[in-house]
Structures are given as structure tokens and as C-alpha cells.
């Protein structure tokens, strides 16, 4: 992605290096734009190679002391951070809506789902426990300790600029690592505000660093010899590149990537609840969620519900995220608007039936915004662009199936495996779905089943690379190296049994 300089009056987004917010010396800048108005809110730098190296060097130096910081000290920083996030919720949500576009209540949800991970990080004392086996041989104990890796890095997408950075740095730092974050260059402002709060909460200088940029910054992270692990969330194309490049450089990598989430609607489901859930999950956040509902598979008699679903979608208000009552805000950029409208055109050209056309909605007072209203296609088939691509807009594709077996087979044939849901009143159907579906996050009458941090976010097939998820129990394993210690202590009364030349512990 290219950087360009257009508005030199706008405030600059800072880098965070060595505990200080610093102005970049780069010549490459990109505007951060309000997607409802096109107002330039700020300019974000594309950090220079020297700045990226300085951020990593500062994290490497800070690791020397941070790794030895007591558990309680680490935990209390996150207790304080959760308090500061709560106190600043309104400001954070407003910043997020301004630069990303989602509605204010949804922006609070974005911050809140990240806050849950901060709360979890405050429990690090009970999460980072090793095991101990007493007397594995005479007078010998074996125990494991989970030690931090060193400098870890995070690369985040534009669609959750609060939640996803908060998936990353709190757990990485709570487990004793230091961190370099590379937020999305499209909406870095709320992320930076969260980092300011993290400093205020007591994160020491160098433990958390932030660089900005695009492809070059990401490649520099993948290649840097002093970075031990990378957590990436974003598209499948970029995530696969990051996974391959960073793995070849010997790093531990987890990549949470793109999606095409399907829901099955059984004819026995509660119709009103189901239609509400479908509309909310397909069109909320203008479809810019990795867990957005993209495809609904109507089984049998449920195929007659299309007109009611269309009516439901028509009731949603399309406007700026700051306007009261808005359901669907703008797409993040003009480029995203062009891409989504182009895909709708291709859907029509390729023979899908356009049940509801959300293109070029009238949005009074926000005529320059990147708006697309709820859009519904029926008769969608594999091979059509609207089915094959992740649209990342408020576009729902409808397909039909005769029974649950056919529906499950259809979903499992799609390469993505991020989220899915079934709507039914039958426990047997729900259980069959849970068992046979090859998707990471499964909802039963829950359209967006993002797990709370007592569990780990996951994914299967093309939606995820790497074994361990970005929060929950799995991330403690991701950010630590297990060391086992086998120990025997002699006292004066220990009898010597001579030299042991075998592998056995005696
Ligand atoms: P993206 O892949 O374009 O960008 C993600 C990050 O990669 C950004 O920080 C960006 O600067 C960087 N980047 C972009 N192009 C690059 C390139 N060519 N080389 C190296 N780095 C590059 O993703 P996005 O558009 O910001 O976010 C939307 C995508 O993220 C969707 O595909 C969505 O499904 C996915 N997503 C997945 C999850 C999940 O948990 N599975 C969560 C949120 C978003």
C-alpha cells in the first residue's frame, strides 16, 4: 500500500519508541480519513528502517528487566489499564467511529471486547503456571516453567482497531515479553490512545513500542532477527505471506485471516429471532467483520423467508456512525466502496438475483461518505465472485439446501473456516452441526460466536495459520517457551549408588 502526502495541516500520529511518543522522520505519510465525511483527521507516518530498528532495540533492552518483573507487578498494570479503558470508553469509541466509521455503540463493543482480554491479562498469575511432578525418581522432581520469548510483534487490521491490538499486547506483555505493534495504517488513532493509556497504567519504557507503515514495515518485522514471535490478524493473502516469510526466519507465528462465514437456517428455527440475527450479523459494522455473516443457507421451507429477510434489511438505517439510530455505517475507504460496489455489479453480471440493492443510498448530511446499504443476493452459486471472494461489505448471499447434510457439505467445501452458525430448535440438528462442521467458531442460535477470553479465538483451514489462537489459554502457550527442570537435591545422608551409565533416572 502506498503512502502519500496530501494534507500537511492535519496532526501527525506518533511512533512509540522507548516509552516516548516520537515524531517520525519519514518522508512518507498517509492520511487518516473519516469515512463518513472524507475529513482528514491525521497523517500517519510510514516508519523508516532506522525507526523500526530503534523500536525493536528498545524492546530488546527492556526485556532484560521486564522478564524478571514479578507476576503481581505485571498483573496490577493490567488491572489499572482496564480501569483507565473504562474511564475513557466514550472518548475511545468516538475516536474509533471517527476514523473507522462503525456506529458509536458498536465502537464501544469493539473497545469492550478488547477490554475483556485486558481483564484476563490481569489474571496472569493463574494463567502462566507450570506443572510439577513430585518424585519422578528417587528424590527427583520434575517441573515446568513457562518463560517469555523476548521481543514479540503484532500486526493488526483496520476493522477492529481497539479489540485486536488489545488481543495482542496485553497478553504478550503480561506473560513477560516486550512488544512492537504495527497497527493498521488506515485507522491508527484509537490504537495510539490505548497505548497512551497503557503507559499511564505503568507499562515501563520500551516494553510496548509502536511503529506505523504498510508492506515494508510488515516485511521488516518478518525479517528482524531480534523478533521471536509474530501475531498477525488480517486478510488471508497478507497473512499467508507473513506466516511463510516469518516462519522461514525461524519465528513463531500465528495468523488469523479472512473468512466467508455461513449460517444454516433450519425450517424449525424461531423465525423472528433468526431473521433479526441474520440481518444484524450480515449488515452490522457494514459487513466489515471477520465474523460477519456472508452466506445464509436456507434449508427446505426456510427458503420462503427471503421476502421477510429483505423487509427486515430495509428497516436498517444507513448513516454516519455518530448519528443516533444508525445501524450501518460507511465502509472504511473510497477504495473499499469501489471494491464492494464492483463485486455487487459482478454478482448481477454473473447471474445471482439481486433481491435488495444497497448501492448509492441517500444519506442526508453525509453525501461524501462511503456508504453501501444492506444488499441481498439469492440464487448464489460457487464460482460466482460474490461467493468466492470475501466481500467485506454489507452484502449477504443466499443459497438453498434440501437438508442439513447438504448444507453442512456445502459449508465444508468452502475453503474458509472462521465462523459459522446454525439456527434451529432441534438439539439433535445443532449437535450434528457442531460435530460435523469444519469451522473454528460455531454458533448455535448465536450469529457471531466470538469466544470470550476464557477460551481462545480459533479458525480452521484457510482462515488460520499456526496452531495457537490469539487470546485465552492458547496464547499463554504462544507467548511462552516451556522449560522443564529435573532436579535432585542431595543432603549429607544421601547414599551414593555409584556411577549411573544408563539413561534411566535412578
Ligand atoms: P490486510 O491484510 O489488508 O492488512 C492487515 C495488516 O497487514 C495491516 O497492518 C496492513 O498494513 C498490512 N498489510 C497490508 N498489505 C500488506 C502487504 N502487501 N504486505 C505486508 N503487509 C501488508 O487486512 P485489512 O483489510 O486491514 O483487514 C480485513 C481482513 O482482516 C479481512 O480479510 C478480515 O477477514 C481479516 N480479519 C480476520 C480476523 C480473524 O480473527 N480471523 C479478524 C479481523 C479481521
Would you kindly provide a written description of the structure presented here, covering whatever features stand out?
- The chain has 506 residues and is α/β, with parallel strands linked by helices.
- The protein has helices spanning 49-66, 71-87, 89-100, 104-121, 124-127, 163-174, 189-200, 215-223, 236-248, 271-283, 306-314, 334-349, 385-388, 404-413, 427-436, 473-478; strands at 15-17, 20-22, 29-33, 40-45, 132-137, 140-148, 151-155, 178-182, 208-210, 227-233, 252-256, 261-265, 293-299, 353-356, 375-378, 395-401, 416-417, 419-423, 441-444, 460-461, 464-465, 480-488.
- It has a seven-stranded mixed β-sheet with strand order 14-15-16-13-12-18-19, sandwiched between helices. It has a six-stranded mixed β-sheet with strand order 9-8-7-10-11-21, with helices on both faces. It has a three-stranded antiparallel β-sheet with strand order 5-6-22.
- α15 (427-436) links the parallel β18 and β19 (441-444).
- α2 runs antiparallel to α4, α2 (71-87) packs across α7 and α8 (215-223) packs parallel to α9.
- The longest helix is centred in the first third of the chain and has 18 residues, at 49-66.
- The protein is globular.
- The structure holds nicotinamide-adenine-dinucleotide (NAD).
